[in-house]
Hints:
Elements: E1 11-12, E2 21-31, E3 37-47, E4 56-59, E5 64-70, E6 73-74, E7 78-80, E8 83-86, E9 92-101, E10 111-114, E11 119-122, E12 141-151, E13 157-160, E14 163-169, E15 174-180, E16 185-186, E17 192-195, E18 198-205, E19 211-218, H1 227-244, E20 252-258, E21 265-266, E22 271-275, H2 288-303, E23 312-313, H3 319-338, H4 342-363, E24 375-376, H5 385-418, E25 422-423, H6 425-434, H7 440-443, H8 445-448, H9 450-453, E26 459-467, E27 472-480, E28 495-502, E29 508-517, E30 521-527, E31 534-537, E32 546-549, H10 553-562, H11 566-586, H12 606-617, H13 623-629, H14 635-640, H15 647-664, H16 666-676, H17 686-708, H18 713-724, H19 728-740, H20 746-757, H21 761-772, H22 781-788, H23 799-812, H24 814-817, H25 823-836, H26 840-847, H27 860-872, H28 879-889
Parallel strand pairs: 2-12, 19-20, 20-22, 23-25, 26-32
Antiparallel strand pairs: 1-24, 2-3, 3-9, 4-8, 5-6, 5-9, 7-8, 10-11, 12-15, 12-16, 13-17, 14-15, 18-19, 21-22, 26-27, 27-30, 28-29, 28-31
Helix pairs in contact: 1-2, 2-3, 3-4, 3-5, 4-5, 5-6, 10-11, 11-15, 13-17, 15-17, 16-17, 17-18, 17-19, 18-19, 19-20, 20-21, 21-23, 25-26, 25-27, 26-28, 27-28
Amino acid sequence: MPRTDIAPTTIRRADYQAPPYFIDTIDLSFDLDPAKTRVLSKMSLRRNPEVPTQALVLNGEDLNLARVLVDGKGCSFRAEGQSLTLDNLPDQFSLEIFTTCTPDKNTSLSGLYTSDNAFFTQCEAEGFRRITYFLDRPDVMALFSVTLRADKAKYPVLLSNGNLVEQADLPDGRHMAKWVDPHKKPCYLFALVAAKLVCREQRIKSRSGNNHLLQVYVRPGDLDKTEHAMNSLVASVAWDETRFGLSLDLERFMIVAVSDFNMGAMENKGLNIFNTKFVLANPATATDVDHAGIESVVGHEYFHNWTGNRITCRDWFQLSLKEGLTVFRDQEFSMDLAGSGSARSVMRIQDVRQLRSHQFPEDAGPMAHPIRPDEYAAIDNFYTMTVYEKGAEVVRMQQTLVGVTGFRKGMDLYFERFDGQAVTCDDFTQAISDANPDSLLTQHLAQFKRWYGQAGTPRVTARGSFDAQAQTYTLTFGQSCAPTPGQPTKEPFVIPIEVGLIATDGTELAPSRLHVLTESSDAIVFNNIVSSPVASILRGFSAPVILETDHDETALLTLLAHDKDAFNRWEAAQSLMLRFAIKSVASKSIDPETNGSNVIKIDLPTALIDALRAILRDPTLDAAFKDLILTPPGEGFIAEQMMPADPQAIHAVREGMRSSLAHALHDDWVATFEANKDTGAYVPDASSSGKRALANLALCMLTLAAAQRDDPFWPGKALQRFKDAANMTDRFGALTALVLAHSPLAKPALERFLAQFKGEALVVDKWFALQASGPDLGGNVLPIVRQLMQHPDFSTKNPNRARSLIFSFCNANPAAFHRTDAAGYVFWAEQVVALDAINPQIAARLARALDRWRKLAAPFQAAAQEALKRVSASSTLSADTREVINKALSD
């Protein structure tokens, strides 16, 4: 059952105190049984001489305490609520604690739990206390040895962290395995697995000459879906050695896939536990997006071995120390694997698109917090886009300010200073600075650290002025940041801005230069500029800011056609479409009920259509880049630019824009589809994936245009492609085209899809998600979602399945969710309360679907507030969910 706490306790960074005791070693013995697992913990402890004498208070949750011994003898103790307290302890002592727990009743999936007749753990952030009493905090690092005992027939594979030192058969059909981790770690990195699994193995030799065993464990029947994960792991090991000189430090490295998992994956030392979504893939069952996600997440968790495990967080406020840095590393890994030129830029654009669609709204809402928060009620709520993605951008800015070579020097110093320690974000930034004493980072170090302490997205203005007589061009910059909860005023940030100048014909008038904006306003002057230029500002998205320029349509079209910076070419297209969308929504001519499909008649400007046509026809551009440029801004991103925001009107306009693109570029879509529809034998590389993405976009456009004309040709072609596809990317792309075009062929195709892949859980997730995020014709999606919740393959206890249906409806289908009759909000409130009783982490994430309710136009705003109040009235909410609801409702 979830924890309940109607008035959650606030934990503050300013109150940090070092632990009163250190735990040097812990020897854990598990007798695994789903109904009653026995856990014997033997620890060696010593008092911290830097902390005044105080009692030892250990964390514990949902444990049955049987025995406590100090130095082998009975002792007095107090077990109260979620703690175990011992007084009058010697300076050094051994502590033995015997407890039991009930894994098969642990639906929160935190701590030790069962999934599909197997045992798994998830201890980050505070799950270890559900296993045994311990100082459950990241700055207490111990050497772990773990002995596992279980029924051999039911659980033939017994895994834990580190190196396997012993295994043997036991009486009564049981067996044991002992694992020893040679590296100190905090308890959140502990893991165990006991299951019936099969394994893909690969032996490698590191550059240092050491041999290592890599293993990927999955359920029987899934072994054919592990090759890509293994290839990604091998690539990760090689990349980290090459880029940062970091080698694998264990005899073996293991990945285990489980279908019931709250997160994407977990970096437990040497034993990474993964959501199956980020392990299992083959061409028949996984799309290119799935393959890319696996590559990224495998890399992310492996890179944590050094940035998170070898050096960890002093406290949970420093979470971005490991997560922001490791996201930056996995982004660099993916870009390096993608290749050079626009292929690399595609990866950057995708990362920025995610940041602006999800993190920028977080920065502007009631849950806004710095990448190093100052307080929290439930730490699980701060595994956020801000801590991860914005944290990565702050690391990237440090690399920009010291250079790639300088950043490597800083990383080397960071590991030299802090290996084996629990440290802070300040320690990391200081190491990068100290390794580069003459850098721009060092020059502005104190001010740069405001990125760690100030919430919100800075807004940068840029205005240009050309003096023909003096042959100068002046760019004047300004910066500001809106108030956020608890931070009414902000000091200026350090903002690195990459900027160049081009002529209207594309000639480069001034190459890229780095300008560092540190004041509320300043200016830079370009000399020897002979003609009025167009400024290409914030190239490569050099800082996580909102940029406002004085570019008119002509300037943006120039950037779209000629800019050498691929990011800013994409940005120009997005800006042109965004401006048009906002103008159309603001007009009074919108009738969302037009033809019953929430689509209005829109004609995009001829100049924009011509520019996009030129992009499609350009043989020098990568297909993936074309796909990104030709995709209009998302509805959520458009909504964030408006106050108030009408989700129905925004949806109608965006669909109208898609329809305009579909019809106006029809012949080019045909040529694009024909040129990219066949990619040969399936390979998930950047080039092939880009061609498939562009072909699927073209098919969507052609099917949409044909369906609106009642022309059966392209819907029929999409259905045939769906049936004949040799890979999941093409099959699901064709199915999506039919669904988004409202084609009558979509229903039989969906039925065929489920029948064909009924035994593939991750594919069935796609089936649920596509229906939940499909077009809302007369309010039909919500009834479909409610009906699908009764489907025999649906269960709210599985996070992947809950996300595929409930989250897809509430988070990925604005027009269906934001109904004028408030039925979508009623459904949301029901599901938040129901999920909270099962899994508070998942419920709290769903609760955030309405945390931006104040932006909504009437009648949506009042109805959303009422739904939030309805959830708040529940007397059994977990601390996780209540914190989100309270902040959403706060003034």
